[in-house]
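Budget justification aside, the reviewers requested a transparent look at the raw inputs and outputs of the sequence design task funded under Objective 1. We therefore reproduce one unedited record. The lines immediately below are the structure tokens for a 312-residue chain.
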């Protein structure tokens, strides 16, 4: 029989196997990459969506903050709002003078190292009345990121007796400070006379001396309207604001004339003897106070010191 040379399939496959294996590996790799991309794509898209959302939120927050910074500029550049009631402003001014003026001055222009200028404050202009009442009621700690003075703003201006209605009057007065176009002409300021309780306490402190009691009672009223915001309504001081004047050795050992001169002059934060490093304004921030007013305040403090010494 004639022998035929039949090509071996095994040999043929052996010759072509490396190429096929290479092509198969490429296909498998491509498919793996495609599958990987398909699996990862939703996650990549979600991540990109989240990042863009965060960026958008930051852009919106910056835009909103920039808009708040321009609040006072918009206020004075717009037509004035409705006129504010005179009786509300008179009440608000009296409460502001007694509680807020020590740090913000009676004109609201702020005291260096103590209180910011309220007349041009974007923060005040950017808040509605209800929110501003809540802010004043709550106060602001010294380390709050929005605190530009580094001095704590005590809740209710350190006057716990202020009601929300009185705070609303103060806010109305702040609106008038920011936009005087809304304020009618107010009557001249007057120092409120002593209350019946202050008169009775003064008479007791004066040992029945009616003339001395009159000085003490008037001094108590002036102190309440000018000094109590920093030194407390009982002259026992306010934490991180004003010192206790009843137990104060400087007050105890300084004569009336020298103490009067000191109060008239005030003490700036750079004075080496200023241990609070806060500004004590001349005449307690109330330039309308006469020397006699201040001497009555001193007499009131002397009476408080005598009462503390006797344990009364």
């Amino acid at each position: 029989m004639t022998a035929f040379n039949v090509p071996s399939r095994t040999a043929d496959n052996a010759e072509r196997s490396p190429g096929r294996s290479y092509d198969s590996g490429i296909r498998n790799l491509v498919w793996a990459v495609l599958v990987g991309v398909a699996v990862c794509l939703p996650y990549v898209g979600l991540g990109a969506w989240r990042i863009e959302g965060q960026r958008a939120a930051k852009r919106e927050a910056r835009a909103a903050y920039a808009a708040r910074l321009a609040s006072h500029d918009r206020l004075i550049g717009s037509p004035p709002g409705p006129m504010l009631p005179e009786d509300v402003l008179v009440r608000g001014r009296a409460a502001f003078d007694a509680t807020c003026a020590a740090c913000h001055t009676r004109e609201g222009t702020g005291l260096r190292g103590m209180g910011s200028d309220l007349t041009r404050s974007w923060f005040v202009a950017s808040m509605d009345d209800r929110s501003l009442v809540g802010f004043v009621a709550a106060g602001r700690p010294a380390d709050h990121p929005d605190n530009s003075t580094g001095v704590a703003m005590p809740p209710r201006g350190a006057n716990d007796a202020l009601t929300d209605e009185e705070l609303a009057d103060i806010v109305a007065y702040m609106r008038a400070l920011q936009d005087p176009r809304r304020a009618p002409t107010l009557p001249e300021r007057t120092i409120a006379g002593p209350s019946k309780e202050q008169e009775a306490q003064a008479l007791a402190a004066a040992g029945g001396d009616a003339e001395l009691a009159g000085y003490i009672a008037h001094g108590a009223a002036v102190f309440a309207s000018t000094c109590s915001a920093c030194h407390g309504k009982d002259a026992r001081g306010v934490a991180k604001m004003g010192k206790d004047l009843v137990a104060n050795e400087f007050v105890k050992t300084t004569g009336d004339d020298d103490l009067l001169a000191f109060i008239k002059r005030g003490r700036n934060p750079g004075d080496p003897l200023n241990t609070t490093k806060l500004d004590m304004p001349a005449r307690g921030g109330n330039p309308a106070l006469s020397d006699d007013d201040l001497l009555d305040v001193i007499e009131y403090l002397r009476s408080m010191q005598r009462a503390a010494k006797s344990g009364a």
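The longest helix spans residues 9-69. The two ends are 144 Å apart (CA to CA). Computational costs for records of this kind are itemized in the attached budget.
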